[in-house]
């Protein structure tokens, strides 16, 4: 059984090369974590006193303004950042999908990149060998898969990366919003694979600005504000409080129907 627990955790970033003049300007800004002024080295308090307990089947959306702490929280939940104060415990193998391009080498072929990216996400070579044909078909890249990655367009790279990411078997899946930033036509094709991926994962945390994506994949949400958890609860309630309106008001009839169907197909919590 997978789980993530975080107790009274804070994450600070000391900034050793900050300029004091630009710091004054920053103090007037509206985004980002608080900048501490004690001592000689300025410290950005990216996360402050976080308490979170997530168990098997959790499907959590992560929302908040720019600089609110979503990416830092995902890295804390992944075990990439240690808390500066407080503690955390992660039980399960984490697949952090923060940047589709990470782990890709421009000088080797698409096929080789499929293997490397899969290993990077915690799969074994054998597991990837079994999946490579299916991934190749999904990407529709044909002979390009034998060419070096540097010859690919941005969209072609995204196809390859999405093909690999959606083929893994994650115990804990942490998704940053970049994954939603692919073109609409390919996203429609990738949606079913993404849904299956989420269904296979024991625990999901998904940072995203799109109501539609959050409603599709999550049932609860955490609202981050200035490095703190402002609200944690039912997805629709959190989105309503965060956005100031019920997210369902702005969905098309077609989207509502699709969401209703996918919730039934996925069951509740993906157990
Ligand atoms: N490596 C770092 N070094 C210094 N400060 C950082 C670092 N990473 C994040 N921060 C600071 O931590 C705060 C939270 O940033 P974070 O990237 O977690 O926000 P976010 O909610 O993901 O924002 P966005 O929606 O803009 O991506 C910000 O004030 C940011 O300046």
TrEMBL record:
It holds the Pfam family ABC_tran. Signal peptide: none annotated. InterPro entries: AAA+_ATPase, ABC_transporter-like_ATP-bd, ABC_transpr_TagH-like, Bact_Polysacc_Export_ATP-bd, P-loop_NTPase. Residues 23-251 form the ABC transporter domain. GO terms for molecular function: ATP binding. The keyword NAD does not apply. It comes from the Bacteria. Keywords: ATP-binding, Nucleotide-binding, Transport. The keyword Nucleotide-binding applies. SMART domains: AAA. Belongs to the ABC transporter superfamily. This is ABC-2 type transport system ATP-binding protein. It comes from Saccharothrix longispora.
């Amino acid at each position: 059984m997978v789980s993530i627990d975080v107790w009274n955790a804070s994450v600070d970033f000391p900034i050793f090369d900050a300029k004091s003049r630009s710091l004054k300007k920053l103090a007037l800004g509206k985004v980002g974590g608080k900048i501490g002024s004690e001592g000689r080295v300025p410290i950005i308090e990216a996360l402050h006193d976080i308490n979170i307990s997530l168990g098997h089947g959790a499907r959590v959306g992560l929302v908040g303004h720019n600089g609110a702490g979503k990416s830092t929280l995902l890295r804390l939940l992944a075990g990439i950042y240690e808390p500066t104060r407080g503690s955390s415990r992660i039980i399960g193998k984490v697949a952090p999908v923060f940047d589709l391009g990470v782990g890709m080498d421009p000088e080797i072929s698409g096929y080789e990149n499929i293997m490397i990216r899969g290993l990077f996400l915690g799969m074994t070579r054998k597991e990837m060998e079994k999946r490579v044909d299916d991934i190749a078909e999904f990407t529709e890249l044909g002979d390009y898969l034998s060419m070096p990655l540097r010859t690919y367009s941005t969209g072609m790279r995204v196809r390859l990366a999405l093909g690999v990411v959606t083929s893994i078997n994650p115990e804990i899946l942490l998704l940053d919003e970049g994954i939603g930033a692919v073109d609409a036509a390919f996203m429609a094709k990738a949606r079913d694979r993404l849904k299956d991926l989420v269904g296979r994962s024991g625990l999901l945390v998904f940072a995203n600005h799109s109501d539609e994506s959050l409603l599709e994949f999550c049932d609860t949400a955490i609202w981050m504000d200035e490095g703190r958890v402002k609200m944690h609860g039912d997805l629709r309630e959190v989105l309503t409080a965060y956005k100031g309106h019920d997210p369902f008001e702005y969905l098309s009839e077609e989207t509502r129907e699709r969401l209703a169907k996918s919730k039934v197909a996925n069951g509740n919590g993906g157990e």
